[in-house]
Specification:
Blueprint: H1 2-22, H2 28-32, H3 35-39, H4 46-57, H5 64-72, H6 89-101, H7 106-131, H8 134-137, E1 154-157, H9 166-178, E2 183-186, H10 195-198, H11 203-220, E3 224-227, H12 230-248, E4 254-256, H13 257-263, H14 265-268, E5 279-282, H15 291-300, E6 306-308, H16 327-342, E7 347-350, H17 353-360, E8 369-372, H18 373-381, H19 388-393, H20 398-404, H21 406-411, H22 416-427
Parallel strand pairs: 1-2, 1-3, 3-4, 5-6, 5-7, 7-8
């Protein structure tokens, strides 16, 4: 693995050199990027902003505006189609962040990555077990894979944090089974994409984590990996898989789950037999991953469902991508809730696990329910999985949540005090920001 991580570093360095050779500092990427205006970055000269990023990639300090652009990139993907020189500007900004973190102490980078990983691992372990008994949760574990003479059709890759809302993952597996597709499940902290080490700049451990996960994918010999998490898709697709291919000679085809499922629509359509008579709006994201188009196609196939455009979407590729923009994240959530009310919907539909965790906590304050799009597909197919995360979060009281969770705490052998602390920090904490409806009325 040490040799692989060194080849990973060499691969990234070579790709950075290609960017430095190809980029002309035309500024097309900066001109279409929504981040500078929101973050208060001077982008009156987009070429200078992009050129400053090249300075950072060369190991120089670079202008602060360019450094801040890299730090606050929300991954909108608007830049991906405007470069005439074959550069992925989103990856370019990622490598600029890598260059900036490389100036900090290696031990500090490693400690920061380890702390973030441990926090995530604890949250996933506890919250998933507050939502499902062990025999059902096991279905989302790699341990559940049956012996097969032939490789599974697909790998369903949950990522890590989706397991905090495991009913979504179970619905995905239910649908794959209806389509008679065989699968293996991978995910959880043991099969992470390495993003939590990448962010503070601990690239050696990020590579070890991601390469181990990709080795597991490759060993399945499945034709493709279906990813749920957009962070994992970008981390693997733009950073890790190209370098893994160079280091091992092995290619991996990774596709976002709704994109794949929309491609199976003609096989899926005969199972969508129950009308779902609801007026719904989708909280959409940018990102250029094909996800929003896929979700819209899937919802359009559900009989009885009316999908309306509520006139608001996020510029980030997912909600957590907006956290560096501080108040913009909270304001975007508030505007989304108000826009859904103004559109007169029965249901606000989330796409990812992170927005479900956020929006579900606001349900009682607004005249609509909050669901993930997979719940609507399941409803039309006659399939349901209880959303215990939302049920617990709406209690809004850690002691009440722990008391209501006593049977699952005991069944999953959780520590009661640890469960309480995770509920406070991961379910009711600052990452799930309160939105005062009186301050954000429907326009």
């Amino acid at each position: 693995m040490a040799d692989l991580t060194e080849r990973f570093r060499e691969s990234l360095d070579a790709r950075v050199d290609e960017i430095l050779d190809a980029c002309t500092s035309c500024g097309a990427c900066a001109a279409v990027c929504p981040t500078p205006a929101i973050a208060g970055i001077d982008a009156t000269d987009p070429g200078a902003l992009a050129g400053g990023v090249l300075d950072v990639l060369r190991g120089e300090t670079g202008p602060e505006a360019s450094a801040e652009w890299a730090r606050t990139c929300c991954g909108s993907g608007f830049c991906l189609t405007v470069c005439e020189h074959g550069i992925n500007p989103r990856f370019m900004l990622n490598m600029a962040r890598r260059a900036m973190t490389a100036r900090t102490d290696a031990a500090e980078r490693k400690a920061a990555g380890k702390a973030a990983f441990q926090k995530m691992s604890r949250g996933v372990r506890v919250l998933s077990r507050l939502s499902m008994p062990p025999e059902i949760l096991e279905k989302l574990s790699p341990r559940s894979h049956p012996e097969r003479a032939e490789p599974a059709d697909v790998v369903f890759y949950t990522g890590c944090n989706m397991l905090k809302t495991p009913h979504i993952g179970l619905l995905c597996l239910d649908v794959l089974e209806k389509l008679e597709l065989t699968y293996e499940v991978h995910g959880g902290p043991g099969s992470c994409c390495g993003i939590l080490q990448t962010r503070p700049g601990d690239m050696p451990n990020a590579a070890r984590q991601a390469f181990t996960t990709m080795d597991r994918f490759a060993k399945t010999k499945a034709s493709q990996v279906l990813s749920w998490c957009p962070t994992c898709q970008i981390q693997f697709g733009e950073t890790m898989i190209p370098s893994y291919r160079e280091a091992t000679g092995t290619g991996i085809d990774m596709t976002m789950f709704p994109v794949f499922l929309a491609g199976q629509l003609e096989r899926l359509r005969p199972y969508l037999v129950h009308p779902v008579r609801k007026r719904v709006a989708v909280y959409e994201y940018a990102g250029a991953l094909g996800v929003m188009e896929g979700v819209r196609d899937l919802l359009a196939a559900i009989p009885g469902l009316e999908v309306v455009d509520m006139g608001h979407s996020s510029i980030g590729y997912t909600s957590t991508a907006l956290l560096p923009l501080k108040d913009y994240y909270k304001n975007s959530v508030a505007k989304g809730l108000a826009a859904a009310e103004a559109a007169g919907v029965d249901t606000l539909v989330g796409v990812y696990h992170s927005d479900h965790r956020e929006f579900s906590g606001h349900q009682e304050a607004w005249p609509f329910e909050v669901v993930n799009y997979m719940e609507l597909i399941g409803e039309s197919m006659g399939i349901s999985r209880p959303d215990l995360f939302k049920h617990l979060k709406l209690m809004a009281d850690a002691d009440a949540i722990v008391a209501a969770s006593t049977p699952l705490i005991e069944a999953n052998a959780l520590d009661v005090e640890e469960a309480r602390q995770v509920v406070l920090s991961e379910m009711l904490g600052d990452q799930h920001l309160p939105v005062d409806r009186a301050l954000h009325p429907a326009e």
